[in-house]
Design goal:
This protein has 67 residues and is mainly alpha-helical.
Length: 67
């Protein structure tokens, strides 16, 4: 009989491997799609630039807290 801690550890490893594999395969598929559709790559860059600029503006506008 396998101890419960070992079973939980193997379960965690299996789930983690499966999720990481799905993320890697999805990223590869998205990269391939962006290579075939360069216009959408430019759109994605502008959107992400806008999101990052908005986050920077929000951080700059927040008052500073002294620790």
């Amino acid at each position: 009989m396998i101890p419960l801690s070992d079973l939980l550890g193997f379960t965690q490893i299996g789930v983690s491997f499966t999720v990481n594999l799905a993320i890697a395969l999805s990223a590869a598929g998205i990269a391939t799609w962006f290579q075939q559709h360069p216009t959408w790559l430019a759109v994605q860059r502008y959107i992400m630039g806008g999101v990052l600029a908005g986050m920077a503006a929000k951080l700059a506008a927040e008052p500073r807290h002294v620790a």
